[in-house]
Design a protein that fits this description.
Layout (H helix, E strand, L loop, with lengths): L7 E2 L13 E8 L10 H16 L3 E6 L14 E4 L4 H11 L1 E5 L5 H12 L9 H8 L1 H10 L7 E4 L2 H11 L3 E4 L10 E3 L2 H10 L10 E5 L5 E9 L4 E12 L9 E3 L6 H18 L3 E10 L2 E8 L6 H8 L3 H9 L4 H4 L12 E7 L20 E7 L2 H11 L9 E5 L5 H13 L3 E5 H9 L5 E3 L9 H6 L3 E6 L4 H6 L1 H9 L4 E2 L2 H13 L15
Parallel strand pairs: 1-4, 2-3, 2-5, 3-4, 17-18, 17-20, 18-19, 20-21
Antiparallel strand pairs: 6-9, 7-8, 7-9, 10-11, 10-13, 11-12, 12-15, 13-14, 15-16
Helix pairs in contact: 1-10, 4-5, 6-7, 12-18, 13-18
Length: 539
């Protein structure tokens, strides 16, 4: 009926579209596809910011994405919108039709990266990092070689196609081990394996995903280490580090499920400086052009390189908002070949912020009655929140409350702690008592606390009879649960504790570092004293 300012396309078989000439001003941006755990709205942020920057630089932009919930599929976001699945068949047809000067695969998460080689093989120009650069980062064996070449510390690792091979590797590395199949998205099928029995169970349950062409990756698990995320952008002659995010939870929790803080609170300044140096060194060696996300672990002040993602990451929106560094805009400028003289990278310094920012995490456990709230290497979260404050305690409590972890100011706390966490969490328990909370605990935890001089009422475990700890939780008398456990059998045995907390909306903390941080923040800060600040300067 009337001309559309922004054409909104979808394809059909046997159609005869109008033939178009090659367009040197057209760029195609590949979106992230349907939102799912491991790849969601965080990547849509990068896509939308990227489209806006490309248009500001004078390019015509075609967006390919198939998620009606994302802003990138709003027909006013790009010049042309192709509402199509992110499959090689569909994307190739669109590229043949639009004839762009190039396509961008770095903004939509892992899905576009996985199809980049096929699109380049069909003759289309990939903007940003080359296929070689991407492959070195993605291929576990090649990446390990590069790390050794650069003298980076990496966890001991191996690849196994059979259980027998896995046993040999486990004997060399030592338990615990983190196992994952090749080509995972969102940490799917990743598990921490504590012994040979669990290793055998892992290979039995995932035998369809593990084969000679796609072996399981087995890495030394750095128990108790701090995990760190780094996002940077590298251009032809410049690099900007967006920031260093310190995870609240210890190593072993997927980065998408872990709360994070910027600037780091437990890392020493010289450790942060070393991390920045390693990041720049690796980006230069990979010859990255555009985005690079690094995941590292710090244990006893030693920095271990875990993995590199040659793309924008789910932490980019958080870092950009926390530091006011426009990482996606800079990524576009890098991919377009802009030089340091044009970009002026010296303007950006993530350390120059007087605000502490904490990333909260939102989980869907309430909607799925069979799910377990214990966190691990496989991602479970479906959303994020962000708390900003004058200090760490304020930012952490804001992030917690906004992600539905609100600890009542008084009441009864139930504790069920694994042995290695009991001494670590003793000061946390003392803080709870000082704040006026009363304590109940499973027999082993209660005995430990009583021997330490802390009053605590022992409660039976589920298999020990009634009334038991689950009955207490369901009675409505419990205000907070701290339940830390590991090992497949222990996790399964304590499932009812965590599930009861979900059903009755009781805060449940399942990781010792998170418990330390949250209770310490609650001890230091009254939520009624929160301040607010405008968002007008945030990216």
């Amino acid at each position: 009926e009337f001309a559309s300012e922004t054409p909104y396309f979808y394809s059909s078989y046997w159609a005869k579209p109008t033939e178009r000439a090659p367009n040197p001003e057209m760029v195609v941006v590949l979106g992230s596809g349907p939102n799912r755990i491991g790849q969601g709205i965080e990547f849509d942020y990068s896509c939308v910011r990227g489209v806006k920057k490309l248009r500001a630089e004078g390019y015509r932009v075609a967006m390919i994405n198939s998620n009606p919930e994302t802003v990138s599929t709003d027909y006013d976001t790009s010049d042309e919108l192709y509402f199509e699945p992110l499959t090689e068949e569909s994307v190739l047809e669109i590229l043949h039709h639009t004839k762009p000067m190039g396509f961008i695969a770095q903004l939509g998460g892992q899905t576009p990266i996985n199809m980049a080689a096929k699109l380049v093989g069909e003759g289309f120009n990939l903007l940003g990092s080359s296929l070689e650069s991407i492959d070195i980062a993605e291929d576990r064996g090649r990446f390990s070689e590069i790390c050794r070449e650069l003298d980076f510390r990496i966890p001991a690792s191996g690849m196994a196609s059979t259980f027998e091979e896995a046993c040999e590797i486990a004997e060399r590395i030592g338990y615990p081990i983190i196992c994952r199949p090749s080509y995972v998205l969102g940490g799917r099928r990743m598990e921490v394996v504590e012994n040979q029995e669990e290793l055998k169970s892992y290979f039995m349950r995932h035998r369809d995903a593990i084969k000679p062409g796609a072996p399981a990756l087995m890495d030394q698990f750095l128990a108790g280490a701090l995990e760190v995320d780094v996002d940077l952008v590298r251009g032809v002659d410049w690099t900007v580090i967006g920031g260093i995010i310190e995870h609240l939870e210890a190593a072993g929790v997927h980065s998408g499920d872990s709360m994070g803080v910027i600037p780091p609170q437990r890392l020493k300044d010289d450790t942060c400086a070393k991390i920045e140096e390693l990041a720049v060194k690796l980006a230069n060696r990979l010859d990255t052009i555009g985005h690079l996300n690094l995941q590292l672990a710090v244990k006893d002040d030693e920095v271990f390189m875990l993995e590199a993602n040659p793309r924008s990451s789910r932490s980019v929106p958080f870092i950009s908002k926390a530091t006011s560094i426009p990482l996606v805009d800079l990524g576009i400028l890098a991919m377009l070949g802009r030089t340091a003289e044009q970009v002026k990278p010296e303007r950006y310094n993530w350390r120059k912020t007087d605000i502490v920012s904490v990333k909260g995490v939102v989980f869907p456990f309430k909607k799925f009655p069979e799910t377990d709230s214990i966190l691990g290497p496989e991602m479970k979260s479906t959303g994020e929140s962000m708390g900003r404050g004058r200090d760490y305690a304020e930012a952490l409590l804001k992030a917690s409350i906004s992600s539905n972890i609100e600890i009542p100011p008084s009441g009864e706390v139930f504790l069920s702690l694994r042995d290695k966490d009991k001494p670590t969490l003793l000061p946390v328990v003392s803080s709870l008592v000082a704040m006026g909370y009363t304590l109940t605990a499973t027999n082993g935890t209660a005995k430990f606390l009583q021997e330490a001089g802390i009053d605590c009422v022992p409660v039976k475990k589920v298999h020990e009879g009634r009334p038991n700890c689950v009955d207490f939780i369901r009675s409505g008398r419990i205000a907070l649960v701290i339940n830390t456990t590991s090992g497949r059998r222990s996790i399964e045995a304590s499932f009812d504790i965590r599930r009861s907390c979900i059903d009755f909306s009781i805060p449940c903390i399942t990781e010792s570092h998170a418990a330390e941080a949250l209770i310490s923040a609650l001890h230091r800060r009254n939520p009624k004293e929160f301040t607010v600040s405008p968002l007008d300067k945030m990216i």
